[in-house]
Amino acid sequence: xxxxxxxxxxxxxxxxxxxxxxxxxxxxxxxxxxxxxxxxxxxxxxxxxxxxxxxxxxxxxxxxxxxxxxxxxxxxxxxxxxxxxxxxxxxxxxxxxxxxxxxxxxxxxxxxxxxxxxxxxxxxxxxxxxxxxxxxxxxxxxxxxxxxxxxxxxxxxxxxxxxxxxxxxxxxxxxxxxxxxxxxxxxxxxxxxxxxxxxxxxxxxxxxxxxxxxxxxxxxxxxxxxxxxxxxxxxxxxxxxxxxxxxxxxxxxxxxxxxxxxxxxxxxxxxxxxxxxxxxxxxxxxxxxxxxxxxxxxxxxxxxxxxxxxxxxxxxxxxxxxxxxxxxxxxxxxxxxxxxxxxxxxxxxxxxxxxxxxxxxxxxxxxxxxxxxxxxxxxxxxxxxxxxxxxxxxxxxxxxxxxxxxxxxxxxxxxxxxxxxxxxxxxxxxxxxxxxxx
Amino acid sequence: xxxxxxxxxxxxxxxxxxxxxxxxxxxxxxxxxxxxxxxxxxxxxxxxxxxxxxxxxxxxxxxxxxxxxxxxxxxxxxxxxxxxxxxxxxxxxxxxxxxxxxxxxxxxxxxxxxxxxxxxxxxxxxxxxxxxxxxxxxxxxxxxxxxxxxxxxxxxxxxxxxxxxxxxxxxxxxxxxxxxxxxxxxxxxxxxxxxxxxxxxxxxxxxxxxxxxxxxxxxxxxxxxxxxxxxxxxxxxxxxxxxxxxxxxxxxxxxxxxxxxxxxxxxxxxxxxxxxxxxxxxxxxxxxxxxxxxxxxxxxxxxxxxxxxxxxxxxxxxxxxxxxxxxxxxxxxxxxxxxxxxxxxxxxxxxxxxxxxxxxxxxxxxxxxxxxxxxxxxxxxxxxxxxxxxxxxxxxxxxxxxxxxxxxxxxxxxxxxxxxxxxxxxxxxxxxxxxxxxxxxxxxxxxxxxxxxxxxxxxxxxxxxxxxxxxxxxxxxxxxxxxxxxxxxxxxxxxxxxxxxxxxxxxxxxxxxxxxxxxxxxxxxxxxxxxxxxxxxxxxxxxxxxxxxxxxxxxxxxxxxxxxxxxxxxxxxxxxx
Lengths: 438, 577
Ligand SMILES: Nc1ncnc2c1ncn2[C@@H]1O[C@H](COP(=O)(O)OP(=O)(O)O)[C@@H](O)[C@H]1O
Ligand SMILES: [Mg+2]
Hints:
With 438 residues, chain A is of the alpha/beta class. Chain A has helices at 129-132, 153-163, 178-190, 208-227, 239-252, 266-274, 302-310, 332-335, 343-365, 372-389, 397-411, 421-427, 431-437; strands spanning 4-5, 8-12, 15-19, 28-33, 36-46, 49-54, 67-69, 75-77, 86-88, 104-106, 123-124, 137-138, 142-147, 168-176, 197-203, 231-237, 257-259, 262-263, 278-279, 285-293, 313-318, 321-322, 328-329.
């Protein structure tokens, strides 16, 4: 029988303090409150006092609340029966299905030994030229969408998830709006993908601490599927809410903040989650696509900033388009040498020319005379935005590369592009083709 | 020695508070015991009966009352043959062997010996019975891959010692005694193939420290030509995320003209280390014809590995670099990223509730960084040969803003600054080293006056481009416009370099000298054009041809043909009026 403690010494925010012995660091406890029973986790031991972070929050806890330690850390059940189900951030059923208790596994487990990782080599095709051509997504990549609130980041996430050829989709929602949760669930259902998905949803109405658990639970389950050889895609939206939950708790714990109130270990905390993305040498893989909303459209805000240092690139979503500047896939060079020989050339040149177009736009807005070169750039930029950047474009990589050549040929002479002569000799469309296609 | 046992009275993240009775040493290693677990820790503060320890592992499951075993030893590494080609974590555990034992995941509390114990090395003595030796002098040598690995008098020995016994030529294991030494007081010491050394203490068993004067070629043009690194020098690469710090270091680890490369992957992505890990064994080192891995050693403490071991990892790396320097070799330490190590210091300082400095970094950050870079340097060894440790560290400033404590503290102590710019990386002008803001105090490989001239063109080009933003192209004279185009040309064909092209990725020193000589001539040649459009068209063609030239191997017919084409183009546009 577990001993029950009934004397709570201190309650501050979500953290309660009790005097207890023989308690281990990070162990779970059950705490009975006026509103029911909540789980809590040991976050500090000090001279006989135990600080517990209460998942349901501190509200309603009385000083004589019953605290019972459970002798284990946070766990989640793992089995095939998770598929098609929806749970809360702490793993309780959110749909009407039964709760699952079989095969409990710990969450937040140790990191993969780097010696057992392999170099990712498989491209994930999305049909979006801004991704496939310019910032190719790669299996096992960890990559967030950076965007301001209001951008269609969740639809983008869902679109990629449904296009990608993966075995399992796991959605971790943090501070998700209820409407967005329904959007994901219904879309997965409509497209027949719900039966290979598991959803762990913390909504804005749920307790903060559960927001912290959602990514860990999602990733722990993903890891088990990957170890069984499955290719798993994990969607995490929105990691800024996760970081804000960390901040809230750090402040309650009176930790010294490092940058705009965020704790000094924000980087390590985010990294511990994102680094779960992996390609195992003899099993499956985990790819992580996340959303990081940027307060005030500021990339230097601590959350996007720390995230950018951790993830393998980012898609910068702005005005409904994936911007070529600021967007990056660090793994693209692992795959784009084996797609088509003109892939890298097109990728670099088109962005360089787009940068030149932006400069020309600036000149134009200042009222300067447009040179012949400027006029070419203006024509180019307009077509690039309309035919490549627009998110409604949905074409395979090869078609997108062909389109790239056509746009270039319609706007420039070969040597104006800076492309290697070898490539232009082989790929530059003949006048007639260009005319026909235009 | 009797056991020194303490007892845990507090756990806060990876900081534990331990009550002790017998004397405890600051920075000594201890083990926290919990069930079957033995978690390595280091004493970082002592107050009365209480010691505070940082645990190098996840502390889940520790309890008040759990025992802590103090070892009396400082955190140390094993030094000896068999280090090269290995992949260690921050505490020098060999990761591949760990994977063999534990599978996919790291397992806390599992510590393996860094050097293989059963492997035999062919030992050849270098001293005779009766020889007088001091710390760091060679007693013998064993072949380690492509190097002669010196077996040296233990670095910790003070004063002069006489060789009482020395092993004959033959196979020896790292733990075998190969020499017995005696000093005037009659004390005796044994020397083995391996020795251990505390990581936070520099190895100083050399004759004198020299100034770094020899260039270290990286085969990256903008570095070697404009902002050179010296053997035994120090340099830093600050830059916002995605600007190209890691790619630069990966290129350098491949192509740098040094004997040994030590990669300290400190607190960043595991995937990036995997690239090195899996590719280097397959790549041949043009200097030796052997696999690149033979000169490489990786210390891998990536971002999701224990935070406290990040700090240890950079010290482990620099200690091993110093060890090879003692053999008269040139070692290069690449640390990516030093900011993660600084953040680990910050996390610990926060838990200790120390008074925070700027951005909550501890007040001693600056001196810690300075002391670390001080461990780089060229030294003259006791046998007259020289060795060096070059240190290149990346810095990951918050928000990409260089006005932050880690960048600023680093800039104060290093000899070269390769500042990466977001603007350049957005424009895909790689490597994104800013040509006007970066600097180096070292001498490079091309003629100084040529470099100065090129810098002047870059500066002028930048000023003109700024002016054009105000007055437009129409308000700019054609002479100025051509200077601007020349600056852009220099940038496009020389400063920019394609890291993923087999030829362009690495430009050897001789080719840099050869090409820069010609580019310099082009920059000096007065050029006349009818109008600006004609000038722009000319430079577009010239740029394309010169870039084609960069992509072909020197000494081929194509190389010559392209060079002649470039000359002809210049000839036609030259204005000798
Ligand atoms: N020299 C280069 N040549 C071509 N591409 C580069 C170069 N440097 C960086 N990149 C591109 O930028 C990406 C990010 O570079 P990386 O070195 O990982 O940045 P950082 O370490 O500064 O965050 C790379 O994955 C690559 O796509
Ligand atoms: Mg990097």
